[in-house]
Amino acid sequence: MNNVLAVDIGGTHFRVGLFDEGGRRLLVSEGDTSREDGRDWMLDEIRGRARELVEKTDRPVKACGASFGGPVDFDRQRVLSVHTPGWQNFALGEWLERTLGLPSRVDNDANCGGLGEHRYGAGRGAGSMVYVTISTGIGAGIIIGGRALRGRDNLAGELGHIPVSESGALCSCGAKGCLETFCSGNAIADRGRDWARRRPESIDRVLEISGGTPDQVTARSVVLAALEGDSVARSIVQESARWLGRALLTVIRILDPDRIVLGGGVALAGSVLLDPVRDTMREFGSPSIGYSTEIVLAELENYSPLYGAAAMALDLAGQPETGSTA
Predict the structure, then answer these.
(1) Helices (H) and strands (E) in the chain, counts
(2) Residue 137 carries which DSSP code?
(3) Whose CB has fewer CB within 10 Å in the chain, the N or C terminal residue?
(4) Domain count of the fold of the chain
């Protein structure tokens, strides 16, 4: 039996995992992403943790798959990040092969998350599926017949960068009014910090979780407070859910998929997010144009992209395929 390595580089967290040939997660080494330390710091972390995992197995490691939290030129295996300096046009696939001595393949986190959920999680059995990751940013992986739809410029599924308002804030991509500025993890954190500065008494539980300082409020602290019933935190999550619900209706009108799977850190809010999403879709839906698309939460939670990266590595290693993105 053989093993493979999987890497997930995100804007908030990163992970390196060891998987067996059945797609079972054996070991994971993970940490918080340091944006200040940049690309070289991250590469050092990936190199060191990957080698540590390889040393812990006595079985051959045949390939590596990597998920990256930003646009990826899949054909050229290069990162086209618009979020973080230092990654633009970086040949991550080539770096992994040279550094680890393994055949490697890189894709963006939404495509990887979609592949992971389709093969091992909430998307199993769906002929067509859209995985929406709601984390630091927002992206979507479109899986049709077990394969990721990437588009002419490898930009299919950039749901977070659809313009939805003329009055929106400046997005990380440089445009204004993108969906990401209304319902991403960053947007939720920004609204939480704004409440904490203007009316701290109304959001005391969020502040308590965040260490008492408005600048330390994160999307995670808002979501945790919302799960505990904090009214302001719930209203922040529900406002984001309304924007997301309208975006998902657009996805259904264009693609009419069997299933939409919501993943990423914000999706851990569960019914606090999902219920207002469904309410919004009913509110804005057409009485004469129905749909049967299922809206469900990711089963693999924050590990969806890591599982997708493992699936790519298994395909690359020549294991039996059940839906390759190759």
Answers:
(1) 10, 12
(2) S
(3) N
(4) 2
